[in-house]
UniProtKB/TrEMBL annotation:
GO terms for biological process: animal organ development; cell differentiation; negative regulation of cell differentiation; nervous system development; neuronal stem cell population maintenance. Transmembrane segments: none annotated. The keyword Nucleus applies. InterPro entries: bHLH_dom (IPR011598), HES_HEY (IPR050370), HLH_DNA-bd_sf (IPR036638). It comes from Eleginops maclovinus (Patagonian blennie). This is Transcription factor HES-5. It comes from the Eukaryota. Residues 11-67 form the BHLH domain.
Amino acid sequence: MTNSQEPHTLTHKLRKPLVEKVRRERINSSIEQIKSLLGAEFLQQQPDSKLEKADILEMTVCVLRRLQQQNEKQRRLLNHVNKMQSSSDKNLREADFSLLSSTVQTSISKEKSPVNSDPWRPW
């Protein structure tokens, strides 16, 4: 190894543990945040046991999958309701048009009917 590479290697060797420490702190902090966000869920699953990081991550995956399934069900239900409403609106528009059409037809027929009698006059 040459003299020019030694300071770089020494710096790298000193930095590596610090970088690893910061990385572990980030992981631990995130896992603690997950524990606090999903605390009730963890108590339901394993109330008396100490959870390892792997347990917390596995349970988080389960919770997220369940939420994803619920969201999918809600999305399907909402789409179904929207389709039903659209269909209902279309049927109402057709019924309104039919009613309007028959009312117009009746009015037109009355206007076209010949007047056979004299208008009524009270005098």
